[in-house]
Amino acid sequence: MSINILVVEDELSFCKIIKQHFRHQIKSQKYHFEFANNGRQALKKIVSCDSIDLLILDIQMPKINGLKLLTLLEYFNINIETIIISAYGDMETVRKTMNLGASDFLAKPFNMPTLARAIEDRVKKITNKNIGYFEKRYIYKQQPTGQEKEYGPYLYFRQRDEQKKLNGIYLGKEEPWLQELIDMAENMEK
Questions:
Q1: pLDDT digit string (tens) for 129-184?
Q2: One domain for residues 112 and 49
């Protein structure tokens, strides 16, 4: 089964880097990438093709930006696992994107293995047919020193409703009673 990934990014060099880094997954047909350089193109592709499994979305773009696109997808009840990539990694932006249904947030600049991990995490959730599951999320942010810092884990419980829509419940971070749930989540993934 090939995972269809739509990358929405106005920097054309990023699309070339994606193709280069994931060339083996593309060749083995594990992933199929499509590209759009603004939110308007992305919306057309999403509406015309119902087989987009994963969205990698920049926030600052011409025509329709990433936040507006997420708002439109939510309005039309189009549920696609979404990884946000943005140079604007402040907590307010992260909160807005997560509230609009984004699954992960990667602050630019980030390295490709970080994106690969985020994609693999989303693919696990896409292919997971369980009624509900625990999910650990991390936020990665580039520090002024140039090093990437990991924030989290943030623990969520995700469950499908009758219309197969995925609903998430944010459980929190670093509370002592959550450690047991985090351990359970890690054991469920194994």
A1: 444 555 666 677 777 888 887 776 666 666 655 555 556 655 555 555 556 655 66
A2: yes
Asked if 63 and 35 count as a contact pair (C-beta separation under 8 A), the reply is: no
Q: Are 132 and 126 in contact (CB under 8 A)?
A: no
Q: Tell me the three state secondary structure of residue 85.
A: strand
Shared domain for 26 and 70, answered yes or no, is: yes
Q: Among 100, 127, 154, which residue terminates a domain?
A: 127
Three-state secondary structure readout of 114-170 = HHHHHHHHHHHHHHCCCCEEEEEEEEEEECCCCCEEEEEEEEEEEEECCCCCEEEEE
Of the three residues 79, 100, 127, the one that is the final residue of a domain is 127
Q: What are the backbone angles phi and psi of residue 3, rounded to the nearest 5°?
A: -90, 120
Neighbours of 172 (CB within 10 A): 11
Q: What are the residues facing 54 on neighbouring strands?
A: 5, 81
Distance CA 1, CA 138 (A): 27
Instruction: Tell if the pTM clears 0.70, that is, is over it.
Output: no
Q: How many helices (H) does the chain have, and how many strands (E)?
A: 7, 8
